Amino acid sequence: MLLRPRQREFVERCVSSLMLKGNTLGVGPTGSGKTLLLSAVIKELMPIRACVIAHRDELTSQNQDKFLRMNPDITTSVFNSQRKSWEGQVIFAMVQTLARYPNLVSMPFLDLLVIDETHHITANTYQTIINKAKEINPNVKIFGVTATPMRGDRSSLGKVFNNCADQITLEELIDSGHLVPPRTFVVDLGNTQEKLQALRVKTTGDYNDQEVADILDTVPLNSEVIRHWKEKAADRKTVVFCSTIEHAKNVTAAFLQADISTKLVTGEDKSDYRADALKSMVTGETQVIVNVMVLTEGWDFPPISCVVLLRFSSYKSTMIQMIGRGLRTIDATIYPNITKTDCIVLDFGISSILHGNLEQKVNLKSLEKISKDAPFKKCPECYGEVPTAARECPLCGFEFKQEVRQDHSDIRLLEINMFQKSNFAWTTITNDIACTSGFNSWGCVIKKGEYWIGVTGPSRNTPYINMATQVIHKGEKLTAISAVNDFLCTYEDSDTAKKNASWRNQSPTPNQLAYLPEKYKHDYGLSKGEASILLTYFLDAQHKIKKLEL
190 — alpha (psi -120 to 50), left (phi > 0) or beta? Predict the structure, then answer.
């Protein structure tokens, strides 16, 4: 399994900071592959004894499963309420179980403690575990990964970390096609924005949710929310974020009164009810899910393509959490009948005015070559080292002032950069077809009508029992390229991905030329690498793709 180039840079920076400073924080939002990143960091530090802690059982098992996919030769064990084993080289533990005294005293000598969803780290349970690990080994390294470093209670991650090694931004992932772009509409219902701005002036901390609800939660305003939603997103799966439970109940009632299938989930729900409500989104029984800060973390349902903001926060990262629920791309092998090219954001508050909408941030700079040794700057608030590009200190929340720029660069340049940033070499067959291949698999992006289709399959010389020719993505060209690249990363290794390997630039062999279509036989600029991809397409992929009847 291969990491994307940007993921590899993230891992190298985190490993370097751990070795130099003994602790570091790595920030990666939805779509960055946090579990693969922490798995790769642990692999780079082997041989060591490591413990990965998380606050939910499903995260613990998910982390172990993904770790073993990347590192099948490293032994693992689980420490939770059902199983309590320190046998593995890497132990995956539940915070609530491990923090109990009888369990904590059994902790062995650890070289590395990894904290998933690190924004919880200032809680007493986490601090108890960290203190015990340091008591046993004063030199234990602490590595944290999170999508959202800012905590609602404003407690600082700087209590544990003195640096942030790297921060993959949401904008980078949108630029690279790993998330769909948002389309933001800021809707001012009457004079609500003026009232909310006044509320901002008088508050010293985060916004008081009840005061926000008092402004936004009226029958006429809720009716207007439904009207604007119908105009812009009536055919979309939608998640709505409200300020209070009472506000959420009223918004849910407004959707139901308009004959829109809607469910409400809050922190007061029993787990069975919440699971059934979320399942109804998957089965198609429900179109809109309304919540009060329950679905900002740990819930991913890629078909969501509309996010309604009826609450906000002084933290930009909280806004990004909410919008991120709608930015996941669609895996066509899981959702074959869904096409998603963007996410509509309906902001009925002032989040976008306060923080700037994400479209303003997206540009080509994130696709440029990034130095392995990222430049850092000191945060004037907590004095921690953070990446120069950070707009908000991941350690304490300090907001760096900088100019908001819009980039209107040509989308064609973005596509070229995407091919360059791919792990694999690509060859353009026609204006509507591009292909890439490895030793075990191949992939194509093909334009059909207004959409681009990502198709993958096994090499003709390596028949995989569990791999078939299949459509894995339908949407924009950038997201199709990214989906194909990530698929090949699962089946190929670093030898396959050497785009600068000397053999690729050699002249095609006589045998290659013999099997190529006539028009390529007299192309004197053709390389051996390009010929290899062309043969994969014309002798294998083309025929299998035709059978799919795209």
Answer: left
Alpha helices in 186-287 (DSSP H): 192-202, 209-216, 219-233, 245-257, 271-283
Assigned CATH for 5-169: 3.40.50.300
Please report where in the chains the tokens 């008591």 appear, as a residue. Answer: 135
**The tokens of 333 are what?**
């092998």
Considering the entire predicted model, what is its pTM?
0.84
Rounded average pLDDT over 369-376: 55
Query: For residue 284, what are its two tokens?
Result: 């198609």
The full set of domain ranges for the chain reads: 5-169, 182-361, 411-545
Distance in Å from the first CA to the final CA of the chain: 28
Beta carbons within 8 Å of 422's beta carbon, 6+ residues apart = 436, 481, 485
Tokens 């993921």 sit on residue: 7
Give the C-alpha separation, 452 to 433, whole Å. 9
Q: Where are the beta strands (DSSP E) in 366-510?
A: 376-378, 385-387, 426-430, 433-437, 441-448, 451-458, 470-475
Is the pLDDT at 255 greater than 90? The verdict is yes
Tell me the CA distances in angstroms from 388 to 170, 406, 444, 525, one per residue in order.
16, 19, 37, 42
Residue corresponding to tokens 């009632």:
253
The residue type at 226: I
pLDDT of amino acid 294: 87
Q: For residues 74-113, b (16+ Cβ closer than 10 Å) or e, as one string?
A: bebbbbbeeebeeebbbbbbbbebbbeeebbeebeebbbb
pLDDT value of position 365: 42
What is the per-residue pLDDT for 200?
54
Are 5-169 and 182-361 in the same CATH fold?
Answer: yes
Tokens found for residue 236: 């979309």
Comparing 197-201, 207-211, 326-330, the range with the smallest average pLDDT is: 197-201
- pLDDT for the residue 131: 96
Q: Say whether 368 sits in a helix, a strand or coil.
A: coil
Domain 182-361: give its CATH code.
3.40.50.300
- The full 3-state SS of 89-133, as one line of letters, equals CEEEEEHHHHCCHHHHCCCCCCCEEEEECHHHCCCHHHHHHHHHH
Alpha helices in 346-451 (DSSP H): 351-355, 411-421
Bond before 182 cis per omega within 30 degrees: no
What's phi and psi for 420, nearest 5 deg?
Answer: -70, -35
Q: Could you tell me the pLDDT band of residue 194, with boundaries at 50, 70 and 90?
A: low
Percent of the chain with pLDDT strictly greater than 70: 85
